[in-house]
């Protein structure tokens, strides 16, 4: 197992390198978010697919840590010490089997854990490796590691597949696919850490344990750590996707080309609406019934406005505003003139000069 001194050495070696990079990375994203604030929004529909995949992966990883899905540990089942004679160990094990007889797997395992070294390897790499490895020998313990590594990496490969699917642009869109590299780093990092801890563990550590409760069941302990690490990684990554997709953090402003495309789309929408208004106005002018209704509307509107302007309070308010200088009539007339000229004049095809 990795010692505290090794972890301290790694921390003091990699910390000064990694910490400034993480701080710089956070500040750059923070600066972008402040300089280009974006309103929060609901989770996009396509992002739900990514979050659902990560939820399923997290749930499966947690379920895999349940004892019911773990391989049987014969030392726990039989309440035996590491030094318990082989015949006594399997006699106790047989009492827990149906009809009191050992299963074929038990018979295959029995000669392989007759020695202390075999039992230490059993606690390190699990029953499947000791039972089914065709080339492993206790005098060459690395052969057990080579056989165990593929099964150790398999959960991480499935985890990488889930992360790849969750960050696929086809599943979750471009907003989530930008985290694909980080997802790969997360999956590969967990796999490498798991392999390192398995390879660096002292498989003879249990040889000094004299009591059953002193045994270190490394294989079963690593199954729990592996599932919890994958579940926590998925939960944190899902939180990252949720925060970025709702513009709560890590907001990336659109590029100049994207802003131009958005502006053109809005202008096209405005042009379409103006064209529709022109069509409606053309219909109103050409149809006699609609034209009479339109004229009646504007006549009534003019009468209402004239009545409002003739009221005593309105007349006094206008007189006070003009007399006090709060309204510059000349400036208002100039702005009205420029506005009207801007409507009827275009650079390419002037209607009025």
How would you describe this protein?
71% of the residues lie in helices and 0% in strands. The chain is mostly helical. The protein is elongated, with a radius of gyration of 38 Å. The chain has helices at 4-35, 45-63, 74-78, 86-95, 104-109, 116-125, 127-132, 142-166, 169-172, 174-177, 180-200, 218-245, 256-286, 288-309, 312-324, 329-344. The model has no long low-confidence stretch (mean pLDDT 85). Helix 2 (45-63) runs antiparallel to helix 8, helix 2 runs antiparallel to helix 12 (218-245) and helix 8 packs antiparallel against helix 11.
Write the layout of secondary structure elements.
Blueprint: H1 4-35, H2 45-63, H3 74-78, H4 86-95, H5 104-109, H6 116-125, H7 127-132, H8 142-166, H9 169-172, H10 174-177, H11 180-200, H12 218-245, H13 256-286, H14 288-309, H15 312-324, H16 329-344
Assembly type: single chain
Structural class, please? mainly alpha
Largest sheet: none
Terminal Cα span: 88 Å
What average pLDDT do the residues reach? 85
Helix content: over 70%
Elements, N to C (H/E): HHHHHHHHHHHHHHHH
Question: Radius of gyration, rounded?
Answer: 38 Å
Low-confidence stretches are none
Q: In one word, what is the shape?
A: elongated
Q: How many runs of DSSP E, i.e. beta strands? A: 0
Total helical elements: 16
Bin the strand percentage.
Answer: under 5%
Main features:
353 residues, mainly alpha, 0% strand
Q: Nutshell version of this structure?
A:
With 353 residues, this protein is mainly alpha-helical. It has 16 helices and no strands. Helix 2 (45-63) packs antiparallel against helix 8.
């Amino acid at each position: 197992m990795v010692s505290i001194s090794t972890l301290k050495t790694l921390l003091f070696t990699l910390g000064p390198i990694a910490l400034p990079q993480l701080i710089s990375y956070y500040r750059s994203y923070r600066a972008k978010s402040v300089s280009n604030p974006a309103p929060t929004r609901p989770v996009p529909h396509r992002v739900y697919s990514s979050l659902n995949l990560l939820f399923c992966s997290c749930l499966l990883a947690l379920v895999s840590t349940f004892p019911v899905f773990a391989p049987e540990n014969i030392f726990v089942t039989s309440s035996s010490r590491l030094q318990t004679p082989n015949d006594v160990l399997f006699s106790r094990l047989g009492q827990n089997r149906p009809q009191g007889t050992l299963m074929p797997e038990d018979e295959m395992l029995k000669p392989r854990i007759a020695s202390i070294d075999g039992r230490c390897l059993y606690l390190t790499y699990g029953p499947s490796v000791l039972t089914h490895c065709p080339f492993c020998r206790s005098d060459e313990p690395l052969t057990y590691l080579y056989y165990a590594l593929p099964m150790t990496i398999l959960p991480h490969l499935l985890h990488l597949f889930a992360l790849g699917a969750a960050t696929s642009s086809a599943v979750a869109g471009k907003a989530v696919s930008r985290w694909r590299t980080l997802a790969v780093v997360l999956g590969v990092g967990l796999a490498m850490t798991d392999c390192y801890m398995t390879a660096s563990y002292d498989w003879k550590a249990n040889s000094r344990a004299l009591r059953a409760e002193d045994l270190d069941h490394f294989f079963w302990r690593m199954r729990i750590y592996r599932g919890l690490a994958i579940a926590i990684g998925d939960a944190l990554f899902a939180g990252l996707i949720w925060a970025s997709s709702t513009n709560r953090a890590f907001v990336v402003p659109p590029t100049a080309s994207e802003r131009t495309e958005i502006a053109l789309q809005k202008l096209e929408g405005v042009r379409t609406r103006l064209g529709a208004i022109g069509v409606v106005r053309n219909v109103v002018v050409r149809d006699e019934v609609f034209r009479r209704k339109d004229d009646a509307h504007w006549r009534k509107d003019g009468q209402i406005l004239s009545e409002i302007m003739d009221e005593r309070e309105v007349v006094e308010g206008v007189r006070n505003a003009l007399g006090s200088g709060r309204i510059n009539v000349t400036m208002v007339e100039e702005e009205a003139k420029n506005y009207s000229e801007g409507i009827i004049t275009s650079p390419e095809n002037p209607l009025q000069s």
